[in-house]
Specification:
This protein is α+β, with helices and mostly antiparallel strands and 403 residues long. The protein has 3 domains: 115 residues, Immunoglobulin-like (Sandwich), CATH 2.60.40; 113 residues, Immunoglobulin-like; 109 residues, Sandwich (Immunoglobulin-like), CATH 2.60.40.10. It contains 3 helices and 27 strands. The protein has a 5-stranded mixed beta sheet. A 5-stranded mixed beta sheet has the order 11-18-17-13-15. Strand 26 and strand 27 form a beta hairpin. The longest helix is centred in the first third of the chain and has 28 residues. The chain is elongated.
Length: 403
């Protein structure tokens, strides 16, 4: 056992020594300083008006980290250029030993660029100026028609380009992306719609419970894929027709299609009482009042609102006013309900339902508990009888006292 343990320890130290020797040889083979810069593409072809965005890669194969200053050394007139990261514009970058750092070169025409060739030059140097680098990028601007012919076509087809439904809803369009390019490509997805709307892409046929939202997809040469476009109108959206636009783009090719969402107003009513109580006391044959509010919970004006009731037999219920001409969204109107129980109603609790009905079948109901108490006539009659009994007793005592 001791021999085996000794063998393992010796083997470990031999491996460690070999690794140290290999590392030392590798470090010796490296130059003291070696920094390079490369543009992702040295030449591109784009349609008129399209912006350019590509990576600049810095690689340090030396023995020390390098601070590199970078700038756009040459740009055609009428173009705006910048060197950026996803967070901000930069003028320099630090590249550690054995690492790569990526910046983004962007160029955009101030106006619609004319067809032709444009040359850009990116320059960089180390802080001490010992290493200088430059990269030239040739951009050929072609007319939109020529760009499509030169790179192949992309077709975007919506199965149902127009959807219709209520304002408070979520909608899903199905769109097929067909690539006629002779190469596999990664397509960026983009969409535009009214302010405050949420438009997202996700793979078609994926379970709702584990749906992933995506911003790009890969399509092989001459193949197609189906996407679901999920649209959520803003909370402030109103009834009307809303155009939407979705598209895909890749290097040298782009396609889009128009969609339309027709929102119709939603109807809704809500009944209640100002105090929140849904009970009241009443007496047989006597009128009792209760205030009821009607709120328009829909998104459009609700008109011709009338009231119906489900009440015990021989009871009477009147509404003042009898109908409401119109209520705007989120507005409240108040009515008075006058309830008269049947004259021979027994003392106890009764259920009474009031329903409001407006346009497009919008309706709501509220149920009240009405407690019928004994009539006041019987109360006064009882008091009268008691008074007569007391008077009778007093007269009796007086009469007996005299005798």
């Amino acid at each position: 056992m001791a021999v085996l343990l000794s063998f393992i320890i010796v083997l470990f130290f031999v491996s460690l020594s070999c690794f140290a020797v290999e590392k030392a040889v590798e470090d010796t083979a490296k130059p003291d300083r070696a920094i390079t810069m490369a543009a992702q593409y040295s030449g591109v072809r784009v349609p008129q008006g399209k912006k350019i965005s590509m990576n600049l890669v810095f690689m340090n194969q030396g023995k020390t980290g390098e601070h590199v200053v970078v700038w756009v050394d040459k740009a055609p007139q009428g173009w705006e250029t910048s060197i950026e990261t996803p967070q901000f514009e930069v003028t320099g970058v630090y590249v550690p030993v054995g690492a790569e750092k990526t910046l983004i070169f962007k160029a955009a025409p101030r106006n619609s660029s004319k067809p032709g060739k444009y040359l850009f030059r990116i320059a960089a140097r180390t802080k001490d100026g010992k290493f200088r680098m430059q990269e030239s990028i040739s951009v050929e601007v072609v007319k939109n028609e020529e760009a499509k012919k030169s790179s192949g076509n992309i077709k975007l087809t919506a199965f149902y380009p127009v959807l219709k439904g209520p304002v408070k809803g979520e909608y899903e369009f199905s769109v097929m992306v067909k690539s006629e390019l002779d190469r596999a490509a990664i397509f960026k997805l983009f969409a535009s719609g009214p302010e405050g709307w949420n438009i997202s892409f996700k793979p078609a046929y994926e379970s709702k419970l584990k749906a992933r939202y995506i911003s790009s997809l890969e399509i092989l040469a001459n193949q197609s894929k189906v996407l679901d476009v999920e649209v959520k109108p803003s909370l402030s959206a109103t009834a009307g027709e809303y155009p939407l636009k979705v598209g895909v783009s890749t290097e040298g090719a782009e396609a889009d299609t128009e969609l339309k969402l027709v929102l119709i107003g939603s109807y809704g009513l809500k009944l209640g009482t100002p105090s929140g109580l849904l009970s009241l006391d009443a007496r047989p044959g006597e009128k009792s009042n209760i205030s009821i509010y009607v709120r328009n919970t829909g998104t459009v004006v609700n008109r011709d609102i009338v009231f119906t009731t489900f009440k015990p037999e021989n009871w009477k219920i009147e509404f003042k006013p009898e109908r409401i001409d119109s209520i705007k969204p989120n507005d409240i109107k108040q009515v008075e309900a006058v309830i008269t129980p049947y004259e021979d109603a027994l003392v106890g609790d009764y259920s009474l339902k009031v329903q409001a009905k407006g346009e497009e079948g919008s309706q709501d109901a509220v149920e009240f508990r009405v407690t019928v108490k004994a009539s006041q006539v019987w109360g006064w009659a009882g008091l009268g009888i008691i008074a007569l009994v007391i008077i009778g007793l007093i007269l009796t005592f007086r009469f007996l006292g005299r005798r």
